[in-house]
């Protein structure tokens, strides 16, 4: 991991919602967007609260119509997470959203043809003290004559790149936008440069990060359904973040947006960029040694942990004792299954040997109990003093060291002729 790239910072939110800082040394924040109509106040509030509960630090809403911005005041009263108004084409929507009290505007100046209209939005945000995200999307970069000169100049630097022309065009467009804001002396900005191609996203953000010191909002646009979009997004965003690039992220799927938040958070946890909230689950992929229905058990454990555990307890669900103990070493709570049973350990100490149909309840009970002990100060998360070395679990499940010691296992003959 490369250290984070230094940037300016912006603040999103207020005392009531809490302020999310983007850029500088602030933790990388997670954003998503509502999928429903903003004017449907009750549904919109429910969706925002659901996304916030999943861990979204900021939620964006589209405001294409007057009735959407008219709903914002009530939505802001009923929610406690910073709200961004996403504006395209109609500058009046941006002015109305600022008036309603949103905490940030997402604006594409290229979609508003009249410079005075863009300037009025910039001035309104300046007066309200709220930041703006400006960005280019691959799909909305339209080649125009007045950009050709700069694009050609930039193109020299990217002539050997397979997407050089596109990257040059996106950077030229961003420069053009930034000139508008510089003229108004407005620097409360966050930038994005999205594409649906993971390789383009990596390369364009890398170039943008070299040229501008504004915080960066990372995203792969139109990433597709979760099944494939997750890989496309995490490849691109994970690469950039591990190179120190990126200050806030939005993963976008054509499915329930709660998954966007969950996956973005998991990515940040894995990269060590956010302090994990809730349990970390390790599970084996299973193989021909499996003797319980581990896939079902893992899904049940995952769901229960999400509902019941709020401390970053490491939980391991392993299919057998062959590799389980070694791979789960360091887990706070672990179960090793075998022969329709599971042996449960808490920080290396065996606490139960239960039949398969009792594994879930007992494992969860041990997790809850361990969480209580940590809260009381009687146990420490990740305490490695006690290593997970099961006291002959193999023997307990029907074979193992005792059998070897008792001479019940034939001597190895490997290598003998
Ligand atoms: S822990 Fe056991 S069952 Fe799971 S993959 Fe490893 S060897 Fe196979």
Which class of the largest domain in CATH terms? Alpha Beta
Output the helix-strand order. Answer: EEEHEHEHEHEHHEHEHEHEHEHEEEHHH
**CATH-defined fold name of the largest domain:** TIM Barrel
Strand tally is 15
CA gyration radius, whole angstroms: 26 Å
The total of helices stands at: 14
The count of domains is 2
Q: How large a portion of the residues is in β-strands, by DSSP E?
A: 15-25%
Assign the CATH architecture of the largest domain.
Alpha-Beta Barrel
Q: How much is the average pLDDT?
A: 87
The proportion of residues forming helix, as a percent range, comes to: 40-55%
Structure classification: alpha/beta
Strand line-up in the sheet with most strands: 8-7-6-5-4-3-10-9
Specify the overall morphology: elongated
CATH superfamily of the largest domain: Dihydropteroate synthase-like
* Terminal residue distance: 51 Å
Q: How would you characterize the largest beta sheet?
A: 8 strands, parallel
- Which residues sit in consecutive blocks of at least 5 with pLDDT less than 50? 390-400, 413-417
Named once each, the bound ligands are: iron/sulfur cluster
Features:
single chain; 417 residues; alpha/beta; TIM Barrel; Sulfite Reductase Hemoprotein, domain 1; 2 domains; 8-stranded parallel sheet; 5-stranded mixed sheet; 14 helices; disordered C terminus; binds iron/sulfur cluster
Q: TL;DR?
A:
The chain is of the alpha/beta class and 417 residues long.
Write the layout of secondary structure elements.
Blueprint: E1 9-14, E2 18-23, E3 29-33, H1 41-54, E4 58-62, H2 66-78, E5 83-87, H3 91-100, E6 104-107, H4 115-128, E7 132-137, H5 148-157, H6 164-183, E8 189-194, H7 198-211, E9 217-219, H8 226-242, E10 248-250, H9 257-270, E11 280-283, H10 294-308, E12 314-318, H11 324-327, E13 333-338, E14 341-346, E15 349-355, H12 356-376, H13 393-396, H14 401-405
Parallel strand pairs: 3-4, 3-10, 4-5, 5-6, 6-7, 7-8, 9-10, 11-12, 12-13
Antiparallel strand pairs: 1-2, 13-14, 14-15
Helix pairs in contact: 1-2, 2-3, 3-4, 5-6, 7-8, 8-9, 10-12
Bound molecules: iron/sulfur cluster.
């Amino acid at each position: 991991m490369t250290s984070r790239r230094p940037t300016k910072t912006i603040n999103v939110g207020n005392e009531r919602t809490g302020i999310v800082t983007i850029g500088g040394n602030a933790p990388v924040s997670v954003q998503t967007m509502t999928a429903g109509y903003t004017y449907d106040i009750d549904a919109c509030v429910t969706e925002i609260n659901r996304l916030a509960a999943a861990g979204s630090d900021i939620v964006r809403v589209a405001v294409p119509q007057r009735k959407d911005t008219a709903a914002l005041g009530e939505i802001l009263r009923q929610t406690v997470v910073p709200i961004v108004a996403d504006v395209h084409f109609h500058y009046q929507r941006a002015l109305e959203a600022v008036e309603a009290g949103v905490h940030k505007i997402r604006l594409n100046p290229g979609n508003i043809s009249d410079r005075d209209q863009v300037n009025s939005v910039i001035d309104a945000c300046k007066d309200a003290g709220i930041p703006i995200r400006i960005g280019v999307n691959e799909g909305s970069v339209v080649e125009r004559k007045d950009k050709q000169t700069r694009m050609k100049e930039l193109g020299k630097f990217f002539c050997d790149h397979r997407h050089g022309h596109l990257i040059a065009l996106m950077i030229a467009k961003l420069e053009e936008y930034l000139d508008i804001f510089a003229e108004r002396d407005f620097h409360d900005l966050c930038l994005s440069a999205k594409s649906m191609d993971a390789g383009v996203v990596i390369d364009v953000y890398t170039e943008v990060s070299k040229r501008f010191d504004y915080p960066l909002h990372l995203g792969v646009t139109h990433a597709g359904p979760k099944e494939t979009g997750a890989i496309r997004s995490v490849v691109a965003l994970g690469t950039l973040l591990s190179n120190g690039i990126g200050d806030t992220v939005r993963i976008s799927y054509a499915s329930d947006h709660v998954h966007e938040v969950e996956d973005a958070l998991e990515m940040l946890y894995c990269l060590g960029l956010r302090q994990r909230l809730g349990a970390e689950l390790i599970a084996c992929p299973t193989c021909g040694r499996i003797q319980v229905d581990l896939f079902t058990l893992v899904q049940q454990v995952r769901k229960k942990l999400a509902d019941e555990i709020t401390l970053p307890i490491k939980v391991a669900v392993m299919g057998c004792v062959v590799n389980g103990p070694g791979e789960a070493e360091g887990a706070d709570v672990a179960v090793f299954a075998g022969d329709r049973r599971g042996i449960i350990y808490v920080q290396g100490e065996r606490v139960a040997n239960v039949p398969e149909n009792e594994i879930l309840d007992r494992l969860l009970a041990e997790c809850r109990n361990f969480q209580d002990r940590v809260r009381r100060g009687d146990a420490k998360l990740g305490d490695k003093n006690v290593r997970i070395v099961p006291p002959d679990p193999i023997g307990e499940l029907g074979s193992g060291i005792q059998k070897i010691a008792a001479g019940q296992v034939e001597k190895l003959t490997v290598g003998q002729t």
